[in-house]
Amino acid sequence: MKRANWHETLNCAIEGILDAAKKQKKIKYYFIAAVAVLSIGLFLPLSMMEFAVLAMSVTILLFAEMINTAVRYTINLMHEQSRPQAKVAKDTAAGGVLIASIGAVVIGYMILSKPFFYYMSQAMEIVKRTPDQITIIAIVVVIILVVLIKARTGKGRPLYGGMPSGHAAVSFSIWTAVSLITMDPFIAMITLLLALMASNSRIVMGIHSTKEVMSGGLLGFLVTLLFFQIFG
Description:
Layout: H1 6-23, H2 25-43, H3 48-78, H4 84-128, H5 131-153, H6 166-182, H7 185-204, H8 210-231
């Protein structure tokens, strides 16, 4: 048999990686996570040694999962899955992946946590000084939640009909934001009145029930209040 040269060997190895990533969703997720972790490491002020250890832990995890996949394929070809020996071999290989995963998580946390939390705290300090950004993000999140809930229940469109009322959610989100930013009782009362009028109009027009309007208003209020409590 003709011995394969280095180029053919490399091609076979690459084909093995691509085949495993294509047929095994778990390996695909591992590769995506590895790229994400290493990319984050490039943006953080890590030393060369820290980055090398991080890259090594990721490499070991990917290697362990590739070996686990190869073991499973081999056992499936040689033995029936119901045989006890086959199960033990597969469980042992999976245990190796688990050990590598735990090690990678611990190393990743030890290396990335300090600079990551530092930059996160800096970002939160910036956000705390910009209540207008908090308001916009809170309203966007409220709308997204309304859409998701309506998609879950299968009733209504994003801002028309169904549970909860999108108009009430947005109205009370704006009222909460304005009240917390201005801290003025008169302005808070005026904006609350506007929110109530907008919400009541959905009931009068027969688009929403009282329960749907109350649920929307509560959603907008709680989400916006939460955002201001965390970032404001």
